[in-house]
Request: fold
Amino acid sequence: MAAMTNTTIPAAPQPPLDPNTDLNLSTLSLTPSLPDFSTTTATAQHAQPTHLVSHRSHDPTTNLKRSDPFQFGSRYLNPDDDIYEFNAWDHVETDSSYKAYAEIQYAAQRSSPVSDFDKARFNNDPSKWWNRFYRNNTSNFFKDRKWLRQEFPVLAKVTAKDGPPTVILEVGAGAGNTAFPILAGNENEGLRVHACDFSREAVELIRANEAFDERYMRADVWDVAATGSESLPPGLEEGSVDLVVMIFIFSALAPAQWRQAVRNIYTLLKPGGEVLFRDYGRGDLAQVRFKKGRYMDENFYVRGDGTRVYFFERDELMEIWGGWKDGADEGLEAVERSGSEEQTDRGEDDVEGFDVVDLGVDRRLLVNRQRKLKMYRCWLQGRFKKRARMSPNKTKDSSGQ
Ligand SMILES: C[S@@+](CC[C@H](N)C(=O)[O-])C[C@H]1O[C@@H](n2cnc3c(N)ncnc32)[C@H](O)[C@@H]1O
Reply:
């Protein structure tokens, strides 16, 4: 067990990577904390093209803007491609040297965990650290999530002119970098976006944004893991939400909060309503690059600014969402049981819960072409649908989604 210390966290020495726009590649460093590992690191970083290769950027069918690395699903690395010709490639598995480097990093991280005293500081009042974050970073830290409609086509449907009346709840909305892009293209008069965050500072940023339009939007302070009378956000009742958007928020929770968060979301959704989810995957560069003194628990870290982050395995999310059941502590049991058992062993009474509509691992290789650096990113993206069959006293009209 780590010794009790009263360490003060230095002022944001390592800001969180913006999950999808951290393209300031020149400022990223993969230098490990332990100099002994420099050889492995160098191997992981520097992959030299071995022979002259075709130039796909000169081919009009593949010549997506070279500097547009978040045009998803469009550029696949072929064996004869020059890896440094573009600055991003889709669905690239990590290579063995990077995997080895990652394991070395994890071992170093585990060997120097956050002290129990500091764990308590970060876990007891996490909104305090996010409030600080938004005081320091305002609304410009995260870039607008412009890929939302592409990745979640239902958003295009509900923002179309002839879209159905739709209530969207964004959980952990931050400064509005997801909520505003959804509303920016909206032509549906019947769309309402509730943007919630447990950081008061974040909510103030949303309300102060010139795009904040009260006809279609409201912003409130709400902790998704709250219990009792606080478990629903202001202005929303049970079974009233069509879509819950969760973009890089679940990772900010401690594992002990997952069940309550899922329960609250379940309660809020209409039967048939969906969660649109994207978050960090295990092995992402943001995890691998953590240095000593940031490890809180397995796959769970605290950043230099005091905000927490978890990195998920796909199977873990399958169990958390697909294996969740309402009632006392069933969620925990479900997480402990195998996901497949949950999926196949569902009895007649077992009608509550989520169906995992899809859950994919999004791997991308980002390249700093100038410095010849390779950076592996890994995100998980999925949709979880609240089952439409419910006990009669809980049933509300389905949104028809
Ligand atoms: C990485 S930011 C993502 C912000 C936003 N979703 C986006 O895409 O830009 C995580 C956000 O989750 C919020 N958050 C963390 N824990 C929360 C909780 N328990 N309830 C509600 N919001 C939370 C933080 O305040 C922060 O704004």
The domain at 54-386 is CATH 3.40.50.150 (Rossmann fold). Residues 1-16, 18-71, 330-346, 394-401 have pLDDT under 50 and may be disordered.
